[in-house]
Amino acid sequence: MTHNTGHACGAHDSGHAHGPGAAPYPDFEWDDLYAGDGSDTADPDPVLLAPAGDLPPGRALDLGCGAGGNALALAERGWRVTAVDLAPRAIASTRASACARGLDHRVELAVADSATWTPEEVYGFALSSYALPSRGPARTATLACLANALAPGGTLALGEWDEEACDWGRPGDLATLDELTDAFTGLGLEILRAARTPVPVHQHPGHEQEPGQDHAVIVIARKPHGTLEATG
Predict the structure, then answer these.
(1) Could you report the average pLDDT of every consecutive run of 10 residues in the chain (232 residues)?
(2) 128-167 as b/e, with b when 16 or more CB fall inside 10 Å?
(3) Is the Cα torsion angle 25, 141, 62, 178 positive or negative in sign?
(4) Directed axis angle between helix 88-100 and helix 69-76, to 10°?
(5) What is the rounded distance in angstroms from the CA atom of residue 151 to the CA atom of residue 126?
(6) pTM score, two decimals?
(7) Which of 186, 173, 109, 176 is nearest to 146 (CA)?
């Protein structure tokens, strides 16, 4: 699948046809979740960004970046960030916020499907924030992409909605902790933390709900030194 990559204030997105990552939602327009002007760039997720605080700033990947809150927080900390999302307006919002904050030189953007995008370099930190495709080949490919994108010694942080605790979503939409830890172990990563935890309900995009809590699974993993590229 073709995609556009460029610095935040110097690239323009072409139209994007939703690919395998959106296949379970043939009638859903992901762009409808986003304003495209940066007004929807949310606060970063402190839980998923915490592992990056122990690392020297280098190259980071935010796969499924949405409107860019986490990507821009990493850029503010000195990371050079590749931010990828299949929704063009999500990338437009990330671009607008990066330009407004003077971070365009630290953020590269791509409109692409996480299941088919191929990283052109390796990263010291990779992030996936409630952005996995539904269970199936697209999810398997996305998890492999995250593992393959890590440099030896690199750290991965992933948050997803907890299938065993949430009372919404269709079968396969959400994830289980065992599913994710088994997948990453099979891809050669070392699990540093795996937890089921309550999170603020406002983190769930596209749902207008009263303030409260929902339930997530959080996995922090590391690629050991000397690990060969995973396949999937």
Answers:
(1) 50 32 47 87 94 96 96 98 96 96 96 94 97 96 97 97 89 95 98 92 51 86 77 47
(2) bbbbbbbbeebbebbbbbbbbbbbeebbbbbbbbbbeeee
(3) positive
(4) 30
(5) 10
(6) 0.85
(7) 186
